[in-house]
Specification:
Length: 299
């Protein structure tokens, strides 16, 4: 396949930052260096999410555009503000804390352009974030749940480094939260709606400055709830059908047991079977609503 020159595609770099005065200058310098070496035209937008240190001042001194939130609203809100401010169709977003490498950025962009992907995600090969031992099992379970629900293998659900098409991302803005769950939600929204997504393996490093705003209990709960909610928008039967089968089998098993042992069918047995049918009908109605919604969006 002939590679299309990157110089023909101007991109918008979105860098959300909250109290990252210790690392943001180096992050900007390294990103600019990689893009210039690859001759990629770009605009650079730093979204200061209500920082109380000199994050904005440092970014402005590096000659990039700075958009400021008056108060801290969350990394998801910062990414959304950056996307809405971007002038280009191709968006590159990463973090300002030095955890993601800059060298793979041209590769991600090349993959997006040459293969007409809607999104290319930098999939981390190792987890080195804060609260490592708490985040690792939680992320594993959430990733496996998400893979099952959207019927896709997902090596990294919530990587902060990715390139994607702005026009496609805007279709799912009504779903995207303001919190750390933004990355997970947009990944699932793309996959569940059959957008073309590719995962490119990258390294991952410890923070070089600032303090993580990740809350281990609240944000893990948000990950779980948003995974289920997002899948409900696009493929509700992946949730309702297994639940229907489980409740129906439970009801049938208890009914057979009660009949064999007591020669009687109890009220609870009937309630379980009827509940399974209600679950099935609810799932079918939810799936019908999704189909109708897609037809309205794509007449």
């Amino acid at each position: 396949m002939n590679q299309k020159p990157l110089s023909e595609n101007s991109i918008s770099v979105i860098l959300p930052a909250y109290n990252e005065a210790g690392s943001i200058e180096e992050e900007i310098v390294q990103i600019q260096k990689v893009l210039k070496e690859s001759k990629i035209p770009y605009e650079f937008i730093v979204v200061d999410d209500g920082s109380t240190d000199e994050t904005s001042k440092i970014a402005q001194n590096k000659g990039v555009k700075v958009v400021r939130h008056l108060k801290n609203r969350g990394v998801g809100a910062a990414r959304k503000t950056g996307i809405l401010s971007a002038q280009n169709e191709i968006i590159l977003t990463t973090d300002a804390d030095g955890t993601y490498p800059q060298q793979p950025m041209p590769n991600l962009l090349q993959l997006l352009i040459n293969n007409n992907f809607d999104m290319v995600v930098g999939a981390r090969v190792k987890e080195k974030g804060t609260h490592y031992w708490l985040r690792l099992p939680a992320k594993f379970l959430i990733r496996k749940l998400a893979s099952y629900l959207c019927k896709e293998k997902i090596p990294d659900l919530n990587s902060g480094l990715r390139v994607f098409k702005k026009s496609v991302a805007l279709k799912y803005f009504y779903l995207l939260p303001d919190s750390h769950s933004w990355e997970s939600t947009i990944t699932l929204a793309f996959l569940c709606n059959h957008q073309r997504v590719y995962f490119y393996p990258i390294d991952y490093f410890r923070r070089s400055g600032g303090k993580s705003s990740f809350h281990p209990i609240k944000d893990t709960y948000n990950y779980f709830s948003l995974v289920i909610r997002t899948v409900m928008y696009f493929n509700p039967l992946r949730i309702f059908l297994p639940l229907f089968v489980f409740v129906l089998l439970s009801g049938c098993t208890k009914t057979i047991y009660d009949w064999l042992i007591y020669q009687n069918i109890g009220g609870f047995d009937v309630m379980l079977i009827l509940s399974s049918l209600i679950i099935l009908l609810t799932g079918l109605l939810a799936d019908l609503m999704v189909v109708l919604h897609r037809k309205l969006d794509h007449p």
